[in-house]
Amino acid sequence: MRYAPISPAEAAKQLGLGRSTVYREMRRMGISRPA
Q1: Residue 14: how many CA atoms within 13 Å on its side-chain side?
Q2: Radius of gyration of the chain from its Cα atoms, rounded to whole angstroms
Q3: Residues 6+ apart with CB under 8 A from 27
Q4: Molecular function (GO) terms listed (predicted)?
Q5: How much helix, strand and coil, in percent to the nearest 5, is found in the chain?
Q6: Burial category of 33 from C-beta neighbours within 10 Å (exposed 0-12, middle 13-18, buried 19 and up)
Q7: DSSP assignment, residue 13?
């Protein structure tokens, strides 16, 4: 996720997960949301 050229929302869609789940996991791993 940290180096993915796509947005977290697009990654969530591709993975079949909700955006909230992706953002929660990013926060858990210490990855900040894009500005």
Answers
A1: 8
A2: 9
A3: none
A4: sequence-specific DNA binding
A5: 50, 0, 50
A6: exposed
A7: H
Q: Which residue has the tokens 């050229």?
A: 5
Q: What is the pLDDT of residue 33?
A: 74
Closest CA to 1 of 20, 12, 35, 17: 12
Local confidence pLDDT in tens for the 35 residues of the chain: 556 688 889 999 999 999 999 999 999 999 887 66
* Counted domains in the chain: 1
Distance CA 7, CA 30 (A): 16
Tell me how crowded residue 8 is: count the other CB atoms within 10 A of its CB: 19
